[in-house]
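Notebook p. 47: complex prediction with 7PM.
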Amino acid sequence: MGVLNVTPDSFSDGGAFPRPGAALTHAQAMCSEGADIVDVGGQSTRPGAESVSVQEELDRTVPIVESLAARIDAVISVDTSKPEVMREAVNAGAGLINDVYALRQPGALTTAAALEVPVCLMHMQGEPRTMQLEPAYDDVVREVDEFLSERVSACRQAGIGAERLLIDPGFGFGKLLAHNLTLLRGLRRLTRHHLPIVVGLSRKGMIGQITGAAMSERVYGSAAAALLAVQQGANIVRVHDVRATREVLAVLAAVSAEQSGEQQLG
Ligand code: 7PM
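Predicted complex, structure tokens below:
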């Protein structure tokens, strides 16, 4: 899953909205590098960020989704927590809802249930504006696992079939470095749900804390983290650097095939 940020600072010409042409070029580049999903996000969920209005998020997101849906083969994912944005983005061609609030915002659960697309449910402790102030857990793996169980049950009760659900531990969302590391180490626990596991580790603060690298220089650390996550059972990795991630995962796939007894090279 390639990340396509459509917040005003990205793909803009200095104006308030991203230019669809620039966003399309970046999405096409990610697809040519091997992205199967393009995640379009118009709401900044950065720690400390203020929320944006419904209209602003619609204006940023829907034209881009419409443009991409007509021109690229990849599934278009919409990174939103707002029911209005879910509805309009799916009508514009989005095929996946990626919600960092796991459908806990008013109206989101019933809206997503009515739209017939898959939903990624992500764990977050607190809310974006304050979540990094003092994250606390007794047992981070157990608490994330129990939260996701509860959200999966809520979705199933609302009529969303299991085949439409994905789960994500939400790296960096109300978590300190030690929590993120424990979660990555224990990720395999989440495979008990028998749902696709999505992870977003790309360029995050935890990679910066480990490597000391600035945001745009976190490609190697991010690729290593993606590799470890897939080894622990992740099925979808949300990344900025598609080619680097693809190459690292190709090495893992080759070694795994060898181990399972496939003799492709004679
Ligand atoms: C600024 C800082 C902007 C951080 C955006 C972010 C995830 C996600 C994000 C994730 C899923 C980022 C985050 N992270 N959706 N959306 N999982 N499912 O680092 O980990 O990209 S936004």
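Notes: Residues 3, 44-46, 79, 98, 100, 120, 122, 168, 170-171, 198, 200, 204, 238 surround 7PM (CB under 6 Å). The chain has a mean pLDDT of 93.
Next step: compare against the earlier run before touching the bench.
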